[in-house]
Design brief:
The chain contains 7 helices and 9 strands. The chain is α/β, with parallel strands linked by helices. It is globular, with a radius of gyration of 17 Å.
C-alpha cells in the first residue's frame, strides 16, 4: 500500500487521503458489468465522425443513469484506451461504482478518449525538439470543446457548465489536462494530473500558468506523483498556492512514496482524485 505525504497549510489536516488501494479493483471485469457486480454501470462505445476523424471514445454511465432522468457531471479522460478493462486498464468503471455505492462521490459520467497513437501531438501545448510530432494540444482541446463536448451533451444527460466538467490524464495526458484548466477554464472547471510531465519544453507550463494567473472558473485542482523517481510537481504546487489555491480545500498535491510512473500506480490514486473532484 502506498503511503501518501501531503503538504498542508493553514492548519488543514487529514482530508480522506491515502487509502485508495482499498478501493481499487485488481482483477479485470467486463466493461458492461458482470451479473455478480452490485450496482454496475455501463460502458458504451462512442465515436463521432466530426471529432478527430471519428476518434474512438468510451462513455461510462453510472448505475443510476438508466433508472433516472437526472443530469450528471462529466469527467473527460485522456488515454481512454487504458481507462477500463484493457490489459493494462485502470478499471475506472469499477472504481466509480465502489465509491458511488459507498456515498464517497457523486454519480458521474466518464468520457474516455482514445489517444490513437497521437499522444505526443495531442498532449503537448507547445512544440519542442523531441517527441515528434508535437505541439498540437490547442487543436486537440478545441476539438473537445467545440465538437466532442457538444455532441456528448446532446446525446447524454450531462451537466454542462464548467463547475461540473472535469478533465484528467496521466504523464503527458496530465500536462495537457492542467494546461486545459488554465487555458480553457470556461470549459473545464476541475482538473487532475497524475504524474504530469511539467518538464516538457523546458517547463513551459510553469511559465504559462504563472503568467496566466488563477483561472477564475477553476474550482478544484488535483495533482500527484510518485516518489522519489517520478515527475516533480513542486513548481506547480508553489504557483497554485501563490495564486490563492488552498491545499486541502480547492487544491490537492500528493506524493505517493514508492509510487511509479505506471497505470498501476495511477489506478491506486484514482479514488483519491475522484473523492476530491466529485465529493457527494
Amino acid at each position: 500500500m502506498p503511503i501518501f505525504r501531503t503538504r498542508f497549510v493553514q492548519g488543514l489536516v487529514g482530508t480522506s487521503i491515502g487509502l485508495s488501494c482499498l478501493c481499487c479493483a485488481q482483477g479485470p471485469t467486463g466493461p458492461k458489468g458482470d451479473p455478480w457486480r452490485f450496482l454496475p454501470g455501463t460502458v458504451v462505445s462512442f465515436s463521432y465522425p466530426a471529432f478527430r476523424a471519428g476518434r474512438q471514445c468510451w462513455i461510462y454511465l453510472p448505475p443510476s443513469y438508466a433508472q433516472s432522468d437526472r443530469r450528471y457531471p462529466v469527467l473527460y479522460l485522456n488515454d481512454g484506451e487504458t481507462a477500463f478493462d484493457a490489459e493494462y486498464g485502470m478499471h475506472v468503471g469499477r472504481i466509480c461504482e465502489d465509491l458511488i455505492r459507498r456515498g464517497e462521490i457523486e454519480s458521474i459520467i466518464v468520457v474516455a478518449i482514445e489517444s490513437a497513437g497521437q499522444r505526443t501531438l495531442d498532449y503537448t501545448p507547445w512544440p519542442a525538439s523531441y517527441w515528434q510530432p508535437n505541439g498540437g494540444g490547442d487543436l486537440y482541446l478545441r476539438a473537445i470543446r467545440d465538437t466532442l463536448k457538444p455532441e456528448v451533451d446532446g446525446r447524454f444527460r450531462t451537466l454542462q457548465d464548467p463547475r461540473n466538467t472535469a478533465i484528467a490524464g496521466s504523464s503527458l495526458g496530465g500536462l495537457i489536462s492542467v494546461y486545459a484548466a488554465y487555458a480553457y477554464d470556461s470549459t473545464f472547471g476541475k482538473v487532475a494530473g497524475f504524474s504530469p510531465s511539467y518538464g516538457y519544453a523546458g517547463g513551459a507550463i510553469l511559465t504559462f500558468a504563472s503568467g496566466r494567473g488563477r483561472p477564475p472558473l477553476l474550482t478544484r485542482f488535483y495533482q500527484d506523483t510518485g516518489f522519489p523517481d517520478d515527475n516533480p510537481i513542486g513548481g506547480m504546487e508553489e504557483i497554485a498556492i501563490s495564486q490563492g489555491f488552498v491545499l486541502g480545500a480547492d487544491f490537492m498535491s500528493l506524493r505517493a512514496i514508492g509510487g511509479e510512473h505506471s497505470a498501476a500506480s495511477w489506478e491506486h490514486r484514482f479514488p483519491d482524485m475522484l473523492r476530491f473532484l466529485f465529493p457527494p
